[in-house]
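User: quick one, fold this
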Amino acid sequence: MRPQHSESAHSSEPLDIREVGAPTPDGDPQTSTKRLFLQLHAFDGAPQAEALIEALSASSVESVLYHDLNDPAGVGVLSIATDPADLVSEERRLFGTQPFSELRRKPELTMIGRTYSTGREPDLEDWLLVKPRRNVLNPALRWAVWYPLRRKPEFYLLSKPDQGKILAEHGMMGRTYAEAGYANDIRLACFGLDRHDNEFVIGLVGADLYPLSRLVQDMRKTQQTAKYIDSLGPFFVGHVCWQSPMQID
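Assistant:
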């Protein structure tokens, strides 16, 4: 007997996995296949940073070097690329040779994520490719807090309108801090990328540390964090000691 094929299978639309922003003022659609991939690696055994800065300066990947607030001999390296293959090849070369090869890597603090859209971004390219770089490579923003999170499965069973209300409350608090000049955020998706099955990586950057800690504290009162977050952290708190020049593809 020949297999039966449903009519819907033949008439289904091609799968579209492009990022989508808000329509332009002229009504034109905004789509993109470009995204940034950001990865954080943490190390111990680096009380001095000069040799690390020299190695990072010679690298082809945009990056930030942090001193680890919670480890007096610890550092973190944030790498940025549009092609994740660049992270694999360059990080293997960089971390496999001195001075990084002499350090002890802390895999529990490894984080990776990709930029993504929500469909409401007025400038999609800026959101996906420029804004995250503008935040993490800004010399005035010397402090950073990075952490992964995973939502409870119940969140995904909510209706889209209910999800939207919960996310809007969370997002409004972040915008309030940003508009006051206290904190800027970098939101990354890490579905299928994180070894611990986290779903998002969040970066908070600012000129001072206290507002970043206060923002995390205030976020605990939102429905998303209080009711629908399954896990949060571990946290990496870094103070910038070097940033590569910002590049735009």
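User: anything notable?
Assistant: The longest strand covers residues 143-151.
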